[in-house]
């Protein structure tokens, strides 16, 4: 198991995810434990386009983008663990449950997405995950979500 991928930098993330600016919402993933759990990092900056309108003079990261960042973290975890790169993995939301927002996420914050698989296995199409997004150890958001993993490879 020494070949196991335990982290993904932006180059590997871009090989796994089809997302690109402005919708690539994870900068790094570390602590990858197979398809079981991982931690994603999103450096929140004022340069992101949603801050122009959400909200002018009081920039706050939209909650839906926080949930999307958690989902992208799970896709990187699964893709890195299963060697699915270069367009071999597409992920589609099927459900979002128990979603709660606890604090604002603003430019300058480092958003950490702690994700774990609650149902799903290599080769399976429908997976379920739990995610908690934090800033400085304080919960910003949490959600459980179900996704279809369309593995092309």
Automatic annotation (TrEMBL):
Q: Where in the cell is it found?
A: Cytoplasm
Fetch the Gene3D superfamilies from UniProt: Hotdog Thioesterase
Entry EC number(s): 4.2.1.59
The UniProt keywords, alphabetically, are: Cytoplasm, Lipid A biosynthesis, Lipid biosynthesis, Lipid metabolism, Lyase
Question: Which reaction equation describes what this protein catalyses?
Answer: a (3R)-hydroxyacyl-[ACP] = a (2E)-enoyl-[ACP] + H2O
**Stretches that traverse the bilayer:** none
> InterPro entries per the record?
FabA_FabZ, FabZ, HotDog_dom_sf
Describe the function of this protein.
Answer: Involved in unsaturated fatty acids biosynthesis. Catalyzes the dehydration of short chain beta-hydroxyacyl-ACPs and long chain saturated and unsaturated beta-hydroxyacyl-ACPs.
Q: Which family does it belong to?
A: Belongs to the thioester dehydratase family. FabZ subfamily.
Q: What is this protein called?
A: 3-hydroxyacyl-[acyl-carrier-protein] dehydratase FabZ
